[in-house]
Amino acid sequence: MDIHEYQAKELLARFGVASPEGALAYSPEQAAYRARELGGDKWVVKAQVHAGGRGKAGGVKLCHSDREIEQTCENLFGRKLVTHQTGPEGKGIYRIYVEAAVPIDREIYLGFVLDRSSQRVMIVASGEGGMEIEDISADKPDSIVRAIVEPAVGLQEFQCRQIAFKLGIDPSLTQQFARTLLGCYRAFTELDATMVEINPLVITGDNRLLALDAKMTFDTNAMFRHPYVAELRDKSQEDPRESRAADRGLNYVGLDGNIGCIVNGAGLAMATMDMIKLAGGEPANFLDIGGGATPDRVAKAFRLVLSDSNVQAILVNIFAGINRCDWVAEGIVQALKEVEVEVPVIVRLAGTNVEEGQKILARSGMPIIRATTLSQAAERAVGAWQNDLSQGVKMRAVT
Ligand code: ADP
Ligand code: MG
Prior knowledge:
This protein is of the alpha+beta class. The protein has 13 helices and 18 strands. 37% of the residues are buried.
């Protein structure tokens, strides 16, 4: 789960990480008002979207008056910001953060990530802040400093001093730098984050250390332990198909193809997508209904997949261990009764109560295309989709 920059700054502030004074606005007038409240004569207007690279995309602007702030915000609010991280569709701007502009002397990159090879939290830092870490590692790989944290003892002050030394930070700021690192590490572990990134962490003209940007990502499965963080979720920044699924307790990833997949288990979902590709099709999604799926849950999954207008065929592939094929079959029949399904539905069931499941499908009288093996299912799904497509094209040509 991602959160906005202003929210990450607010959370990190509780752990002693300093950033410039700022305030949130939901309209251009409010932004100007906020700037007057903050005082000063230079502000930075920052579009709050769940993506980096906003500066280059025009989502971060320096302003010198409240009029300028209002005008800048009028151009930003309601627009989609397209950065190299958002994809071509961009992300909607509905919140803007107004922050005091600070004089920057030096920009530092600071990141906390889970390093899978060492199975530890790793600190990644570089004196080349402001650039994206991907560009730093391509252009200036030698500037990157790494440190691994031993979980039994946590981040140690000497490690912070070592990093400060390697980055050439002035000794007068070492203590503050260490406090920033220790605060980020505590926030990371105590809030079940999977990533904390401050880019840039700056040294100001008056020798202060401030986080000018902040990004935090959390382990969604741990959010029940942190209701305050869970509430920071902003659905306007998510793929609507994925947020609808999350609300229904389903694991869903939207993709660009046309064949909707309803599968149980992530491994089987991956295999199903591979088989669809092998048969010449493209999956429209990855939907894992999980173990122990009730008819109701299957029906929900159906409605969800069908709500994606790109879906032109649905492949249900269930290998029932904990699941029961008869329940899944009942769910499919229930969904087909409730929802008008105009696309071919291909079902492959295997495992617990498969005979019962097949009977339910056959007895329903629904136009369900059945398959016994995974490859057969994928071929039939792609075949039915192509067939439908050619008929659709013909029909459109006639009218
Ligand atoms: P993004 O990483 O999405 O482009 P940032 O918050 O990092 O957005 O802002 C981009 C750049 O704008 C920063 O690298 C910094 O140079 C400048 N900037 C951001 N906030 C401030 C601020 N409060 N004062 C001065 N410059 C800022
Ligand atoms: Mg940044």
